[in-house]
Amino acid sequence: xxxxxxxxxxxxxxxxxxxxxxxxxxxxxxxxxxxxxxxxxxxxxxxxxxxxxxxxxxxxxxxxxxxxxxxxxxxxxxxxxxxxxxxxxxxxxxxxxxxxxxxxxxxxxxxxxxxxxxxxxxxxxxxxxxxxxxxxxxxxxxxxxxxxxxxxxxxxxxxxxxxxxxxxxxxxxxxxxxxxxxxxxxxxxxxxxxxxxxxxxxxxxxxxxxxxxxxxxxxxxxxxxxxxxxxxxxxxxxxxxxxxxxxxxxxxxxxxxxxxxxxxxxxxxxxxxxxxxxxxxxxxxxxxxxxxxxxxxxxxxxxxxxxxxxxxxxxxxxxxxxxxx
Length: 325
What we know:
This protein has helices at 10-19, 44-56, 74-87, 97-106, 123-133, 146-155, 178-183, 258-263, 278-296, and strands at residues 2-6, 23-26, 60-65, 91-94, 112-114, 137-139, 159-167, 199-204, 207-212, 215-220, 235-238, 241-244, 251-253, 268-271, 315-316. The protein is globular and about 60 Å long. Helices cover 30% and strands 21% of the residues. It has nine helices and 15 strands. The strands form three sheets. The protein has an eight-stranded parallel barrel with strand order 1-2-3-4-5-6-7-14, surrounded by six helices. A three-stranded antiparallel beta sheet has the order 8-9-10, with no helix packed on it. Strands 11-12 form a two-stranded antiparallel sheet. By secondary structure, the chain is an alpha/beta fold.
């Protein structure tokens, strides 16, 4: 299986390549991608330099252009596609059907992947994107079980890519409005979930309070690690008890089930985390590189050693092994 790894800066890009990534995915420094955070992403010149660096070492580059263009501002997204093709990236990751059509018509030889932001999770939806736009790979939402992924792969004519490590998303991806409700900005339209300029931390005695806009997201005790405030991972009080109502702080880690994913017909594994630093990227990518090489050598699955890199020092196989509907 192909190992697809994140990069938010040139330093983390090279860390991913040197740790054994088959592919590095990244975005331009604007709202055309779903990780539009201050200090992250690439200028055109930086992406051209890093693409040359990657190609010289046999690593591919995918450009994420996976937010939904704002009416009247489509030119920004069109230019991102045009520039990515001119730079020579190996695939463009898209979600919006208008942008898919533009790319298909303007750049018929470009390889198109469907972003998880499109939330395509059934046979007919995937066939539609393949038939109408020539999409060659679909990034599947993190809500499908292993059996459902295997069943999809038996019925569709495109490659599938699944998330392997990193943050979880409990919402229908591409359709979450929690951040927009709290701040007026969303990952779908503006490329930002919990934009940094709406984030505040306050000290209250021995506690630290994290806030997003006007909302209190969490209150941490002195011994607790303070996290970045997103509404879906907030700790709220309900019926007199404080708890994580939407999602516990935990990270996806499929190291132990790589052979099962391969048997299910999965083509590629995506590491989440373009906002992570190069040390994190190097350790996570290196660990998955060794695990995949071990399987390729016929030694079977390995045990993850990434627990110290996970949120809340807790990991899960997410929906892949869920036994509920």
